[in-house]
């Protein structure tokens, strides 16, 4: 977590931050006019949704850098978005290398004295390829113990871990502002996400034990699989990023695995072009379906996945329907 390595910057920010007014308004950076209270800037839409809920409760301000549908692995900020980040009191980042296109911008924000919170670092991250068990004894002292590329950044697909993240965001905002309302709101949103976690489990209970095998567009479902009792039979794009490119041999081998294991569906990603998934499905044949899930981004405002809770409920529903 960057903040743990930047205690001096936190103290400076806390000293210069106004105590939140009880009736201060919440809103994103598109609204005109000055605002009172702490301003939080989140990078991804799942984190932005949770940050919005906490900030609205606490009477603060929020902005989400990435638009709906953006792939966090390759998103690059515009000059206006960078300017918004540089006005933040606290930046809420995913971390663990997820925001590859924002890495230098986040580093510069930290150098400029803006606290940057890497949430994935703080919610018991697990290594790629080691998703079958939890690491409760993992060292959370900071980035030093979390080699980017080794640890899986896709923690938000486990609602229980996002609940931990919400509480941590609220606590950090409370420390910076001196207003315990932020920590209270973080705890309130955290409880809502714990309830969401239970709802997701109930929905997924419909999937029989022998059907809990999934194929996805990239290696993003490690936390989901560990939390909800699923197994990955393979991924279309190798590695934990959407930017890699599979070989024709890779696709042929995965197609054979899908046939051999009788996997009925390939789950694609609404934030990524699904051309490779479609190619794989054609190679498998008519026995496999393609179902898009909300992986890297929440959905449009008029969709059932418009916020983080809706995203997780919709994914659970789609997975349960496809595999039941």
TrEMBL record:
GO biological process: cell adhesion; metal ion transport
Ranges of biased composition (kind: Basic and acidic residues): 129-147
Region ranges (Disordered): 126-147
Family (UniProt): Belongs to the bacterial solute-binding protein 9 family.
Any one Gene Ontology molecular-function term assigned to this protein's record: metal ion binding
GO CC entries: cell envelope
Signal sequence annotation: 1-21
Compartmental location: Cell envelope
Name of this chain's protein: ABC-type metal ion transport system, periplasmic component/surface adhesin
Record's keyword terms, sorted: Metal-binding, Signal, Transport
């Amino acid at each position: 977590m960057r903040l743990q390595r930047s205690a001096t910057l936190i103290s400076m920010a806390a000293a210069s931050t106004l105590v939140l007014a009880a009736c201060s308004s919440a809103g994103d950076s598109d609204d005109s006019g000055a605002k009172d209270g702490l301003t939080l800037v989140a990078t991804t839409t799942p984190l932005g949704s949770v940050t919005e809920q906490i900030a609205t409760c606490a009477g603060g301000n929020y902005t989400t850098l990435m638009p709906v549908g953006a792939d966090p692995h390759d998103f690059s900020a515009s000059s206006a978005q960078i300017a918004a980040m540089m006005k933040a009191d606290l930046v809420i980042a995913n971390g663990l290398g997820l925001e590859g296109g924002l890495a230098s911008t986040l580093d510069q924000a930290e150098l400029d004295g803006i606290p940057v919170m890497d949430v994935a670092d703080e919610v018991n991250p697990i290594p790629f390829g080691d998703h079958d068990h939890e690491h409760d004894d993992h060292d959370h002292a900071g980035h030093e113990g979390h080699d980017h590329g080794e640890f899986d950044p896709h923690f938000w697909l486990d609602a229980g871990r996002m609940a931990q993240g919400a509480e941590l965001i609220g606590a950090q905002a409370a420390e910076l502002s001196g207003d315990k309302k932020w920590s209270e709101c973080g705890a309130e949103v955290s409880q809502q996400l714990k309830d969401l976690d239970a709802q997701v489990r109930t929905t997924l209970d419909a999937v029989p034990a022998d059907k809990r095998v999934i194929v996805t567009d990239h290696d993003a479902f490690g936390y989901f699989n560990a939390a909800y009792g699923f197994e990955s039979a393979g991924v279309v794009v190798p590695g934990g990023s959407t930017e890699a490119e599979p070989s024709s041999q890779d696709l042929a081998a995965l197609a054979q695995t899908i046939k051999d294991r009788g996997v009925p569906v390939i789950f694609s990603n609404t934030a990524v072009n699904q051309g490779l998934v479609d190619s794989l499905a054609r190679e498998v044949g008519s026995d496999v379906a393609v179902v898009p899930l909300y992986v890297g981004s929440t959905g449009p405002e008029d969709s059932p996945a418009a916020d983080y809770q809706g995203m997780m409920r919709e994914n659970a529903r789609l997975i349960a329907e496809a595999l039941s």
